[in-house]
Structures are given as structure tokens and as C-alpha cells.
Design goal:
297 residues, alpha/beta, 11 helices
């Protein structure tokens, strides 16, 4: 086997042209180099391949058997290499047959992925979309290995090594079922604390959230009676009971079964961003996907 590190790619390009022209002068013209330079390349090729390659003939040069056997494989190899390093072609979503993988929580599935899906089905009907559970401790590694293409995550505690684009800032609102008897108007702070509350505890089984910290600073506390691991189950529980919650506004604002009431306590909101790895940063298909995501916000 020939050690590829010893081969100057320019030599193979010269050999391809020589096998096509069978004439050093014409080969030099096509390569835009001098005739002596072509002769130097030919000498190096003969030494490298241990074959004369081209011999003098009555009308120019004639290839040896070894050179003739190289003609087609060499041309195919150079064409493949040229395609590999050519600038990326414009992305055509209408004909693209690929799979994108997005890491998301159930909250960002509802607020981002669901509206995104409608755009993808309309504009990239042959593409596929897979939604994976968000695993914060593995995000950077998953992105680096290509297990996920895009990640939706709060800006806080997100991987710093990834590219980021802020999508929106979310705020918390007080929400309960439509027609809730105690949410006809904004409750007082005491009335708010006397309601039966539910929270999302993503680490499992917790009954304390940022609302409780805000109330504690005011010397107050509320009654949290129900803890769930997912936002979508929270929404279903609110619609079918008299429980209330401080929930992200985008999650509940368009649900006809729920109503939003002004809360007597202010909570800091949070920012949602999308993240991606450097390996796909310049990829035309990935850039198109990111633009679609931004357009549905």
C-alpha cells in the first residue's frame, strides 16, 4: 500500500491531465503551469509509482499498462474529492430526506416544537423530526456526538461551549380552571395563600418552588397539595380540579379550559434559548432549521 502522506495531491491532478492529453505542452496549458513543471511532476510520479507511466510515441505520448489501469479510478477519485470539498449546495427543504433530533422538555415541546412541526410538515415534508428527553447533564456531550441537533433550555445553567440564540423570555401567571369561583378577580395575598396549589417538580416529589421563596420574603406561605413531574399533566390537573398554579404564561394562555388571573405576588421569569454544536453551525440544513425555529416564536 502506498503511504498517502507521501503523495502530493497536485501530482495526481497532473497525472489525470497527462492521461487525458498525452502531451506535456497541452497538459501544462490546462494546468496553468510551465512545461518544465509538468516534467518535474511526471518524474516524481514515475518514482512514486515505480513505473514510466508515459512513453514517447509517434504522435505524442502513450500510457503504459499501469498508467492505463489508473486512468478511470484516478478520475473517479479526483471527482469524488472535488465534490467532497466543494462549497455546500443551497438547502432545498422540499426535497430533503433527513432526520433532525431535538432535546426538549414537555414545556418547550408545547411552546416551540408543536408550532415548529406545522412548518416542517408544510415546507420539508420528506424530513423527519425526533424529540428526545432533555437530560441537562448530558447535553454538551450529546450535541458533540451528534445525538441531538438542537437543544431547548433555559439560559441559566446551560452548556457554555455551545452556540446559543435566545428565543423568548417567559413570565409566570396565576392560572386555574375556567369558571374557578375564587379566580373571578385578582386575589389578595392572603386569599392566594389559602388556595390549594399545585407545582411542577422536575426533580421529583418536591413541594417547594420559587413562589414559596417570594412568599417567605413577605412572611407568608401557601398550601401546596399536589406535585407533578410534567407541565402537561399540570395543565390537565388544573382543568379538572379547583387547584391553582403559578405557571409559565405560554403554556396556558391559549388553553380554553383555563383562565389566567393577575397574581398578588411577582416572580422572576426565565429565558428560553436554543443551543447547537459547532459541528453543525455552518451546515445549510441546520441553519434553515434554526431559522424555522426562530420564525415560530
Amino acid at each position: 500500500m502506498v503511504n498517502l502522506r507521501r503523495i502530493d495531491l497536485n501530482l495526481l491532478v497532473t497525472l489525470d491531465v497527462l492521461l487525458s492529453e498525452l502531451n506535456v505542452t497541452r497538459a501544462a496549458e490546462r494546468l496553468h503551469i510551465s512545461q518544465p513543471a509538468v516534467s518535474v511532476h511526471l518524474a516524481k510520479l514515475r518514482d512514486l509509482l515505480d513505473d514510466p507511466l508515459l512513453l514517447p510515441g509517434p504522435r505524442g505520448m502513450r500510457p503504459t499498462a499501469r498508467a492505463e489501469s489508473l486512468r478511470e479510478p484516478l478520475r473517479e477519485a479526483l471527482e469524488s474529492l472535488s465534490r467532497a470539498v466543494a462549497p455546500a449546495a443551497p438547502f432545498d427543504p422540499g426535497s430533503a430526506e433527513l432526520t433532525w433530533r431535538i432535546a426538549a422538555t414537555d414545556y418547550t415541546e408545547s411552546t416551540i416544537v408543536l408550532p415548529l412541526l406545522q412548518v416542517l410538515r408544510a415546507q420539508a415534508p420528506k424530513a423527519r423530526l425526533a424529540v428526545l428527553d432533555l437530560e441537562p447533564s448530558r447535553l454538551e456531550r450529546q450535541a458533540e456526538q451528534g445525538a441531538v441537533d438542537v437543544i431547548f433550555h433555559t439560559t441559566e445553567n446551560a452548556p457554555e461551549a455551545l452556540h446559543r440564540k435566545a428565543l423568548f423570555t417567559e413570565r409566570y401567571v396565576l392560572v386555574g380552571r375556567r369558571g374557578h369561583p375564587k379566580l373571578k378577580r385578582r386575589p389578595t395575598l392572603k386569599q392566594f395563600c389559602d388556595l390549594d396549589h399545585t407545582i411542577v417538580s422536575q426533580d421529583g416529589g418536591g413541594f417547594h418552588a420559587s413562589t414559596d421563596d417570594a412568599l417567605a420574603a413577605l412572611g407568608m406561605s401557601r398550601r401546596v397539595v399536589f406535585s407533578v413531574p410534567h407541565f402537561l399533566f399540570l395543565r390537565a390537573a388544573l382543568a379538572q380540579t379547583d387547584l391553582v398554579a403559578m405557571a409559565p404564561e405560554r403554556l396556558v394562555r391559549d388553553d380554553p379550559a383555563l383562565q389566567i388571573t393577575a397574581a398578588p405576588v411577582d416572580l422572576p421569569g426565565f429565558e428560553i434559548s436554543m443551543y447547537w454544536h459547532e459541528r453543525v453551525h455552518r451546515d445549510p440544513a441546520h441553519r434553515w432549521l434554526r431559522e424555522c425555529i426562530a420564525s415560530v416564536i
